[in-house]
Specification:
heterodimer; A: mainly alpha; B: mainly alpha; rod-shaped; hydrogen ion transport (chain A); ATP_synth_F0_asu (chain A)
């Protein structure tokens, strides 16, 4: 019986062996391998349709230089969405509740976009740190503010994903515990709580998908500025 | 995207290089601000610290 609400966020181990690698590699085995056939089964067709549609939608605002990132963005999106959705199953560990993992994704990818911008178009990359038409007395202040906002980006990316998923999981556990405890004492209230739990679970499914999409979308926007 | 407004403004003097309208002007403002911050930091770092005189009690 879980008494501590934060046990679900502990990195899983079994007999001292860390299972985080298993948790991270699990999504890979759940997806069917694309075949060489012209017409595939329903699952493969759906997977191919989703990947093509998502990639097309994401790369629409990017110019040709940014299209190299298509594989990275799509695979990151599929990875995050799978981890988030699998984590909603009972008694599963959600790796994306770990800030270290999310920062491990956010910082290198954000830094890559900044370095690409500085290498390929340094004038434009530096020039974007000052909004056009800024009054002269405000120029230094705004440059400092824009620089701070630039460096806050990877932090925001990582913390956004972590906080959304952690908060959602905590809420689900709290309300589920409340429903369980109330069931023998006040059945009517327990039924209402269970209804709230059901609606919250639906919300968390949506949040799981949206947060994965937002992560990748923001990265594509950062790339768009620098390519 | 970069420098699309270059022909609209006629700047003279220092404003030709430091302004908030052309992309090069904005870049120069950013670099000047960073240089200024670095200069202020170095000024305080390299400034000799005055030691208080030790008085016997």
């Amino acid at each position: 019986m879980t008494l501590n609400f934060f046990d679900q966020f502990m990195s899983p181990t079994h007999l001292g062996i860390p299972l985080i690698a298993l948790a991270l590699s699990l999504p890979w085995v759940l997806f069917p391998t694309p075949s060489a056939r012209w017409l595939n089964n329903r699952l493969l067709t759906l997977q191919g349709w989703f990947i093509n549609r998502f990639t097309q939608q994401l790369l629409l605002p990017l110019n040709v230089g940014g299209h190299k990132w298509a594989l990275l963005f799509t695979s990151l999106m599929v990875f995050l969405i799978t981890l988030n959705l699998l984590g909603l199953l009972p008694y599963t560990f959600t790796p994306t509740t770990q800030l270290s993992l999310n920062m491990g994704f956010a910082v290198p990818l954000w830094l890559a976009t900044v370095i690409i911008g500085m290498r390929n178009q340094p004038t434009a990359a530096l020039g974007h740190l000052l909004p056009e038409g800024t009054p002269v007395p405000l120029i230094p202040v705004l440059i400092i503010i824009e620089t701070i906002s630039l460096f806050i980006r990877p932090l925001a990316l990582g913390v956004r994903l972590t906080a959304n998923l952690t908060a959602g999981h905590l809420l689900i556990q709290l309300i589920a515990t409340a429903a369980f405890v109330l069931a023998p004492m006040m059945p009517t209230v327990a039924i209402l709580t269970t209804t709230v739990l059901f609606l919250l679970t639906l919300l968390e499914v949506a949040v799981a998908m949206i947060q994965a999409y937002v992560f990748v979308l923001l990265l594509s926007l950062y790339l768009q500025e620098n390519v | 995207m970069a420098g699309h407004d270059a022909g609209m403004h006629q700047f003279t003097g220092i404003a030709k290089y430091f302004n908030a309208y052309t992309i090069t002007g904005r870049r120069n403002c950013v670099l000047a601000t960073y240089a200024g911050i670095a200069g202020i930091f170095l000024l305080f770092k390299l400034k000799p610290k005055k030691q208080k005189a030790v008085t016997s009690s």
